[in-house]
Design goal:
The protein is of the alpha+beta class and 205 residues long. It has two domains: 2-89, Arc Repressor Mutant, subunit A, CATH 1.10.10; 103-200, Nonspecific Lipid-transfer Protein, Chain A, CATH 3.30.1050. It contains ten helices and seven strands. The strands form two sheets. It has a five-stranded mixed beta sheet with strand order 5-4-3-6-7, with helices on one face. Strand 1 and strand 2 form a beta hairpin. Helix 7 (103-113) runs parallel beside helix 8. The longest helix has 13 residues, at 39-51. The chain is globular.
């Protein structure tokens, strides 16, 4: 454990790993996702994680394309550790307001927090989260998330990470989010409920 903490125990290191679980990201995207980490601190963590072989850099597309950071195969083995730590931390006191919530963190919350009915028909959702498009597929009792457009979708959502996180934590906030325009969706309400709350769908009159 001590050797592992030598690699990922510094402040923000595991949060950088968390942000790279779903998709490679540029430095500016990581800064946006982790606004409380200064540029210098984030650069230090990225340099250390790269040195230890947890992440690496590559160019998107051509040699002149933007540079992104992504997890190595060894770094990706941290995923169950990060998810377990996240689940353990749900019962910890919340941060003071105003707090931030990245797209990746709320998508991981959706992926591990929703318990779909394995016998229910699958759902494919087009999710616009702060302008980035994601495909969320609920099937056989599991939630799968990937970056990009789905070929077809049963339901489409547009919202922001903080609103989506609030909806996942408190089903009673759905009506107000819809009324206030914080959540826009195309589809039917039962499917939306199944997507957000799985087999714990709240009773709605």
């Amino acid at each position: 454990m001590a050797r592992a903490l030598d690699v990922v125990g510094e402040r923000w290191a595991l949060l950088v790993v968390r942000e790279l679980l779903l998709v490679p990201q540029r430095f500016s995207e990581l800064r946006h996702a982790l606004p409380n980490a200064s540029s210098n601190l984030l650069a230090d963590r990225l340099r250390e994680l790269e040195h230890h072989g947890v992440i690496h850099r590559r160019r998107l597309g051509s040699a002149s394309g933007p540079q992104v950071y992504e997890l190595t195969e060894w770094g990706r083995r941290l995923e169950p550790i990060v998810l377990a730590l996240s689940e353990w931390g749900i019962d910890a006191p919340g941060p003071p307001e105003p707090s931030s919530l990245s797209a990746t963190s709320v998508l991981l919350f959706l992926r591990v927090g929703v318990r779909p009915d394995p016998a229910a028909p699958p759902i494919v959702c087009r999710l616009d989260l702060d302008g980035s498009i994601w495909t969320v597929r609920v099937e056989s009792g599991e939630v799968h998330v990937r970056s990009g457009e789905p070929a077809t979708a049963d339901i489409s959502l547009r919202t922001d990470p903080k609103t989506l996180g609030g909806l996942l934590a408190d089903p009673a906030s759905l009506d107000s989010a819809l009324a206030e325009g914080k959540l826009a969706f195309v589809g039917d309400l039962p499917t939306l409920n199944r997507l957000l709350y799985g087999d714990a769908v709240p009773h709605r009159s």
